[in-house]
Amino acid sequence: MKDQYRLVEFNLNGKDVSCMVDCRASLTDMLRNDYRLTSVKKGCEVGECGACNVLIDGECFNSCIYLAVWARGKKIRTLESLLGPNGELSDIQQAFVDETAVQCGFCTPGFVMTAVEILESGKVYTDDELRKLLSGHLCRCTGYENILRAVKKTMYKRNGLEWKEDN
Amino acid sequence: MQNVGKSVTRVDAYDKITGRAKYTDDLCDNRSALVLRIVRSTIAHGYVKSIDASEAEKVPGFVKIFTCFDVPEIDFATAGHPYSPDPSHQDTADRRILNRHVRYYGDDIAVIVAENEIAAAQAARKVKVEYEELPFVLDAQEAMKPDAPVIHCELFQSNVLKHTDVRIGNYAEAIKEPGLICVDKWYDTQTVQHCHIENFICYAYEEAGKVVVVSSTQIPHIVRRITGQALGEPWGNIRIIKPYIGGGFGNKQDALYEPLTAWVCRKMGGRLVKIDVSREETFVNNRVRHAIRYHIISWVKPDGTFVARKLECFSDQGGYASHGHSIVAKGLGAFAKMFPCPNVEADAYTVYTNKPVGGAMRGYGMPQASFAFDCATEDIATALGIDSLELRRRTLMPKGFKDGFFKTEQYYDSYNQCLDRATAYIDYEKKHKEYAHQTGDIRKGVGVGTFWYNTGVWPISLECSSCRMVLNQDGTIQVQVGETEIGQGADTAYSQMAADVVGLKDYRDVHIVSNQDTDITPFGLGAYASRQTYMVGFSVTQTGKLLKKKILDYAHEMTRMPVDILDVVDSNIVRKGDGRVLVSLAQLATTAFYDTVHCDHLTAESTYQIKSNAYSFGCCAAEVEVDIPLCRVQVKKIINVHDCGNLINPALAEAQVHGGQSMGIGYALSERLIFDPKTGRVLNNNLLDYKLSTAMDHPHLEAQFVENPEPTNPFGTKSLGEPPACTVAQAIRNAVLNATGVAVNDLPLHPQNLYKRFCEEGLIKDPWQKEE
């Protein structure tokens, strides 16, 4: 049993942390159970739905199929990291709210993290490219319509492009 | 109205966008919870003879096993219907907490209690089960044959759970009229699943001698009753708490594993136990949408006038009754309303099969029925060589149509208004002609589809809503109702309505209590039948007026002014004659709380029993591109137009439509559960092999509304939650017909199905077919 646990040191939302984890545990398990990060959701636990997405060294991963022990030395970012010191929403979160892109809210954090990856690339994508980049996430409430709009509007804003309603 | 009718931000948006909103698993103390894992049958039909857990018990972390031989000998029903004191209106009680008589592959036969998920899963795999196998049947019509195995032999002589009919005029006589044209078609719909992103989950513990179950449910008060029934305990012993839930779509309008979890909790001396259902189990062991097959025979005049029609519906219930016949019966009842006809002979059969259980799912039988009914109209037009849009306009329920049963009517020319908007958006009439005779591999097509829906369940079942309002010291109010927020935005709509009724400045002055707790929340029935906004409209209005009267009575004491000349406007007490603000609601409330002469906590609570129903209408128009060699359909343009009365929150209403359109696109093109004919096992119970639409599978989703005020409701509103999912598949199917000339009568229109149909119609050649 002793060998079953490993010490994992990593950076979580900007802070260096360490944790003893069961080597069978997924990153989802560790973030939810050991750090109580409720934005990391479980929808399938086999990498199909995207609800558990987090950023690992800037790249989006399904944390449910990423072992907790692999986090060693990595920079992990969850939705919780986006909030300002006084609870201010980041631009992408505000866009989700403004565009009515939140319904049941269960797929939302995962989508936002993929949106962060898209936005931080600094690139301007076409609609088809954005749809493809978001297609690793499943949502049953929104039909993706307002989510796409929220991501696109924020992308335009960050890149200094003018938004028109027929964009 | 100051708040109603505006696209205000959702009340729960901040909590959800920050990941702070607490769902069931976020609330459970996972360090101390014992974990449940169900042992599932590996046969589709038969009896459990014995269960050997000796190997399972050796797994480290194993705690206990309970089997079908241990559970109470109580049969119970799971459907999330309001209870009826009349036994003939009660749902069929045909299952136990664990079942010895196995009715489908994966049935619940035992449950492992373990210290963690891994131990539970390992132990469950090591349980050895001995069965007495029986023949099984996987098709509703096959199950109706005399030699079919009887799946609920304890209760019924055959597999027909229920048969009901509708008779109007005289079908047999009417079809003798000379010169009639007969169009005889079958339409078939597939089994699909809700696929809410949060799987079903619940946990239970004892407190003050009661079992508390925290559950991802749409219907806490109903689940309390069912759990009490299943355990054979007084209903007050059960307390159900409903936190935020990650979607429901009807699957959670059923008691799923709350009875099992509550029972195990009792057996474990009240310890905290949790069941977290996997995605694979969600597909098979929760509920699914009924696969329903329709046979429609239409006798029409050459101009398209409907003279006589016959309808047969065969609904695949799966292994247990759940919502049962009420699903197919909704479509049965709608047949002669949606497309009125003087002579109708209609029959519906709900039939047990050895498959996963059919339950409620967004649309409650109407996506299936509207698909068949609307396709039939398209096919009649094609047979007669007349314009199908024109035929719809002539045959759909006209303005002035009265329904004696639901005591409602078609008050407006809703269908034509909706069709006008939808067809204009995609330039339907021009394109429909233009696309009719294409050649080549890639062809385009346009189609429309229509639906009918009602609002809530009166007079079939009870309709009521209870509301509590509590005034705070600062002049804001708490509002509680039993109608649950499940993602649709109900809490926001309630807040907007409550603010306007009481006279508050802003909907954010209403602190809606989102979570329901059956020990605290006033009795209400929950989220289903697209009822919430309509029903809460009544109870919020009634309770708001009661609270307002108490506020004004207190204002009279403070201001000396008679109550009749006072009003609450913008959170102030205002003298109506000159509009002067006499005192703010906040000042009044603080005084009422702490006045040493007259202290009064101003609250109101009331139940409104609703005795009305409201029809909801709309249509979908779609443009598709069909790649014939690839047998692939892409939706290029889509619009839904709904008449759901006045919109309480237009942005949320639009978002609701988007979700329904998406579900409809999946229903039309890609979703289906596949069953192994040799075993009855579901083969694609995961989100990789079950093809849910992604962002890549949609064009822009356009949602528009015709806002005809519903006269029976204080806010002029009616159902919108389910309707958007009821109208898409037929529009897409009709668009494929326009593009290719091929009518596909069974869903989904996925490549395998189109390949078969295109071969049959000679559009492509089957390379494996032998030369004649």
Question: What do these coordinates show?
Answer:
The complex is a heterodimer of chains A (167) and B (772). In chain A, 52% of the residues are buried. In chain A, α2 (91-98) packs across α5 and α3 (108-120) packs parallel to α5. Chain A contains five helices and five strands. Chain A is of the alpha+beta class. Chain A has two domains: 5-80, Beta-grasp domain (Ubiquitin-like (UB roll), Roll), CATH 3.10.20; 91-158, [2Fe-2S]-binding domain (DNA polymerase, domain 1). With 772 residues, chain B is of the alpha+beta class. Chain B has 19 helices and 29 strands. In chain B, the strands form seven sheets. In chain B, strands 3-5-1-12-9-10-11-22 form an eight-stranded mixed sheet, with helices on both faces. In chain B, α9 (325-338) packs parallel to α10, α10 packs across α11 and α17 packs across α18. Chain B is globular and about 100 Å long. The N and C termini of chain B lie far apart (73 Å). The mean pLDDT of chain B is 97. Classes of the chains: A alpha+beta (167), B alpha+beta (772). Chains A and B meet through α2, α3, α4 and α5 of A and α1 and α17 of B.
Helix and strand arrangement:
The complex is a heterodimer of chains A (167) and B (772).
Chain A (H helix, E strand, L loop, with lengths): L4 E8 L2 E8 L4 H8 L18 E4 L2 E4 L12 E3 L13 H8 L9 H13 L6 H8 L10 H14 L9
Parallel strand pairs in A: 1-5
Antiparallel strand pairs in A: 1-2, 3-4, 3-5
Helix pairs in contact in A: 2-5, 3-5
Chain B lengths: L12 H5 L6 H4 L6 E7 L5 E7 L9 E6 L33 E2 L5 E7 L2 H9 L2 E6 L6 H4 L16 E9 L2 H4 L6 E8 L12 E7 L2 E6 L4 H12 L6 E5 L15 H10 L5 E4 L2 H7 L5 E10 L5 E13 L6 H14 L4 E10 L13 H19 L3 H8 L6 E2 L4 E2 L4 H13 L1 H7 L7 E12 L10 E8 L5 E5 L8 H13 L7 E3 L3 E2 L14 H28 L6 E4 L2 E4 L5 E4 H10 L8 E7 L6 E12 L4 E12 L6 H20 L31 E5 L22 H13 L10 H10 L12
Parallel strand pairs in B: 1-12, 10-11, 14-15, 20-21, 28-29
Antiparallel strand pairs in B: 1-5, 2-4, 2-6, 3-5, 7-15, 8-13, 9-10, 9-12, 11-22, 13-14, 16-17, 18-27, 19-20, 19-26, 23-24, 24-25, 27-28
Helix pairs in contact in B: 6-7, 9-10, 10-11, 10-18, 14-15, 15-16, 17-18
